[in-house]
Amino acid sequence: MDRFGRVATDLRVSLTDRCNLRCTYCMPEEGLAWLPRQQQLTDDEVLRLVRIAVDRLGVTEVRFTGGEPLLRPGLVGIVAAAARLSPRPRLSLTTNGVGLERLAPALRDAGLDRVNVSLDTLSPERFRELTHRDRHADVLAGLRAAATAGLTPVKINTVLMRGVNDDEAPALLRFALEQGYELRFIEQMPLDGQHRWDRHTMVTAAEILASLAPFGLESDPVSRGTAPAETWLVPGWSAAGGGPARVGVIGSVTRPFCGDCDRTRLTADGQIRNCLFAREESDLRALLRGGADDAEIAQAWRVAMAGKRAGHGIDDPSFLQPARPMSAIGG
Fold first, then answer.
1. Which one of 90, 185, 242, 324 has the largest count of C-beta atoms within 10 Å of its C-beta?
2. 212: closest CA among 174, 242, 265, 176?
3. Other Cβ atoms closer than 10 A to 135
4. In a domain, 309, yes or no
5. Residue 124 domain-assigned?
6. CA distance between the termini of the chain
7. pLDDT value of position 194
8. Residue 98 is part of which domain span?
9. Can you tell me the distance from the alpha carbon of 176 to that of 62, in angstroms, rounded to the nearest whole number?
10. CATH number of the domain to which 14 belongs
11. Cα–Cα distance between 250 and 253 in angstroms, integer?
12. Would you tell me the crossing angle of helices 294-306 and 43-56 to the nearest 10 degrees?
């Protein structure tokens, strides 16, 4: 629990800062300086921290992120070990989808519950421009494989950029509805490796919703709870598993939900971040490798979360973008 009474039950675990795409809003085409291998947590270290979070700190949901988590050689084993924990946490994965076609069945067998896949365009040509890689077909194949494997609901994460792909919102929603996926539009956040984010060029939640007006969206009677996405019902469409189809918008910048945040983040090198936009971190790797017992590590984690701020402060004139980009933090 932090000093504002928020309880962190959702753990985001970054398994690597490496990625096989170069999305323009995330990192430069040449990539970034990756963490040295010896600085990254081993599989056993990752699992020990996940176990402490579940056993001692009340975490009920674990999401594996990156970078690109499918690049982690021990991913399937990590998922399988996490699925054996008691009480068993809900397990999900955020991925760019490249390589998911091959790994989806093994991940499902290991105990993964569902996936979020990033997809910002339906155009292969535009995908190449956005990611500097020709892997659009692989992402679509990964989505299909995830659905076939039962990693449902399969959710799509889309970032719209002004003058780049902001004209695709209706087409992306129709695609998701037709394929039985759940679409989440995400406002572009100040977490790019180039530090070039500009609020004035960001496509806002209000603009996204305006572009979806032809669908006649209706307010979702189900409370969002601590979920980051505000959701709307799409009349005339049903979700793949039955019930009404929904579309979500994560307005982290213009419609912040900090007061209901339930997340704690573990970086690939063992640092705890109590907020996605935090500029301070707490080092659990040093405790792990220094011989600390579980109780000591749990207490250090509690202290780290207790200092969480009331909000991310993007609207504050003193706001500074975190030194780490999203790829090195993990969503």
1. 185
2. 174
3. 20
4. yes
5. yes
6. 20
7. 60
8. 10-155+171-181+256-329
9. 25
10. 3.20.20.70
11. 9
12. 70
Confidence of residue 193 (pLDDT cuts 50, 70, 90): low
Q: Residue type at 22? A: R
Question: What number is the average pLDDT over the span 43-63?
Answer: 98
How many residues comprise the chain? 331
| Phi, psi (rounded to 5 degrees) for 277 | -100, 10
State residue 294 phi and psi, 5-degree precision.
-60, -40
pLDDT at 103: 98
158's torsion region: left (phi>0), alpha (psi -120 to 50) or beta?
Answer: beta
Q: Check: CB of residue 268 under 8 Å from CB of residue 15.
A: yes
Alpha-carbon dihedral of residues 6, 187, 129, 144, nearest 10 degrees?
A: 60
Rounded Cα distance between 68 and 93, Å, is 10
- Establish if 207 belongs to a structural domain: no
Does residue 124 have a cis bond before it (omega within 30 degrees)?
Answer: no
pLDDT, position 176: 98
Report the alpha-carbon distance of residue 130 to residue 144 in Å, rounded.
22
Residue 211 within a domain: no
> Distance between CA atoms of 16 and 205, rounded to whole angstroms?
30
**Distance separating alpha carbons of residues 285 and 283, to the nearest angstrom:** 6
Q: Which two tokens stand for residue 77?
A: 């084993």
Between vectors from CA 114 to CA 112 and to CA 120, what angle results, nearest 5°? 130
Count H helices, E strands: the chain? 10, 12
What distance in Å separates the CA atoms of residue 284 and residue 290, rounded to the nearest whole number? Answer: 10
Query: 214: cis peptide before it, omega within 30°?
Result: no
Residue by residue, DSSP assigns 290-321 as: TT--HHHHHHHHHHHHHT--SS--TTSTT---
What total number of domains does the chain contain? 1
